[in-house]
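Aim 2, interim progress. The first record below pairs a target sequence with its structure tokens.
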Amino acid sequence: MTGRLYTEVHGDPAGEAVLLSSGLGGAAGYWAAQVPALVSAGYRVVCYDQRGTGRSLQALPPDYQIKHMAQDVEHVLDELGIARCHLVGHALGGLVGLQLALEAPARVTSLALINAWAAPNPHSARCFDARLALLDHVGPRAYVEAQPIFLYPASWAAEHAQRVQAEVDHAFDHFPGADTMKARIGALRRFDVSDRLGAITVPVLVSAALDDVLVPATCSQHLLQGIKGSVAHSVAHGGHAHNITDPDTFNYALLAFLAGQL
């Protein structure tokens, strides 16, 4: 794979590096509620648009897999001269972190996994089937209009209706194309490291929302059971993107974990 990905770097160049890896949308902007808190705590924060999304519109390789996304993270770190990082990943971004910790553990100081998983499950499969059906039979607009249903609790989405609609419009305006989206969904659906979790030895924070309608909270429980010494953080309400809907609670837990206090 070639071509430099769009990357943003914030904060103290001498600070410990924290790399933020987004979920299916892939955009650096997903982390707007985390970057200021991490910068204020003295970290060097790296965000990037994943291959095929946002401002990183390079073509995807054939048989696209999570391992390719992890290799892209290594390339980003190499380009910035960063030997290792704390990696914070949301959903698909968490899978990237797990893959990197397994294949290149020297590059990972710690992992923070937000509503991630180690293996496919039938409920999430049903959700992705529905989303793909919308994409195939109705089109990209319907696909992105449905996205908030999976990301946010209904009460939060209703209260922030203008913000949610602006996000939907932005997602439609920057939709990467059906083939790219299907390849990304296919990669995450094939991901299964359930029998390798015991090989992960870096500190791991597993953060879950109990009301996530896309990824069952039991997926986080499986991660906690499989990764020795991993630390649990959960919220009752916040949805799949609880680092957005309740950023103060999530940021407090993340900073405590990074400081070794959680």
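The second target in this work package is listed in the same format:
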Amino acid sequence: MSGTENSIQELFARAASLLLGNGVDAAGDYDAGRILQALEYASESSNRMDSEAANRADLLIAASRFARVFELASPDAPGLFSFGAQFDPALADPLHDGSPMVGVSGVGLTLRDAFQGCVGEGIEYLSQLQTGRDVLLKPGVDDWAGKLGPNALELVAAVSERCIQPERALSWCRATRLTDGSEVWLPADICLRRPPAQRDFAPPFPLSIGSAAGPSRDAAALHGLLELIERDAASLWWRGGQLARSIPPQEAGMVVEGLLRQLRHGASVQRRTWLLDITTDIGVPCVAAVSCRADGSGFAFGLAARPALEAAVRSATLEMCQFELADAVVATKRSERGDDALNAQDRTHLRRAAINADQCRLLQPVAEYAAHLPLHATEASAIFELIVQRLEKLGIETFCLDLTRQRFAVPVVRVIAPGLQLEPSEIVTARLQDTIARTGGGATYTGGVSLI
């Protein structure tokens, strides 16, 4: 994909029109046709319009509104496709005029997967932004808070202590409790990205955790729930000190070997890679993929929770390569512009990459295998329901908000499970406290260095 930034954005819009069959044909717009071919979006029948084609067109239209969309190359994984993008939050609503530009990225084994991951992440962020049409509640919140379970009430109490103006009543946002489908209200600032001047408190964790865009509402909801479980597992492992377990070679060895051959082909410096099973008592397979240089330096990782172990291995490996690329970008930024050019996230990357992977006990799996929850369903909605039921048995409530915006037309869902421990988060749940009490905590091995 070449050309100036403006011409590329225009091409995305024309490609969407071509995909939708809006009076344009491939012969008349060769460049837009090439975009569709590169992304494997070219339809076998230009007269057929289904939900998949409509979703792809929505992604192209969204990309045409971004300020920049660009490709990135990874020196450690030349076989990885990667996109980056930047956009103005005011795309969501004038409430956010003057906000700084936001950057997102996506990776995959194909150009299509990387593009969809990147643009989908951008739409997810934009859909979380508060708009002037969102209905928030202030009076009578005690009635709604009374419907919440103990974990949710603890979260409400924790964020209430962080209020910027304690005398001001919290704003609340409508949500659905998944166990019984009842309507509840949760603090708005853990549901939506609100303008700083309107916030009751600064969110104690990234609002991206548990939020997802997808080709369908069910797919988005499942992705968001799996991310919550992934971050809970990561926190109990890294901060809690819960040792990782081995993954049976026969289950994932061949998968990761073939994947790494494809990703690493052509790399000038080879990295060592291994897998850790960090699955918790929930039972949904959670994997950490770890890599480093020959001497143990340059530690990078990827995390994934998926219904099947093999899928978790693949996703974690791809995210590991994304972190390797991010580390390379930070190193380049530092060498070209100095330490003063680094932001807080850049410095977290540097501190984490300085850990010697061969000497950190948390990065060495114990010789035992985890028990995984049997999730034999194939439909996203059925898998989602099975996991929600499992969480309920553990006393963990789950809540859901549909954040799909008409402007972007791509399903976006936010899932909130207050009993799970997020990573990173300034709130320490009972799950993490209990794990630290049992193990002594992960700081024993990490020196308190943040994972994310």
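Residues 309-337 form the longest helix (29 residues). This observation will shape the mutagenesis plan for the next reporting period.
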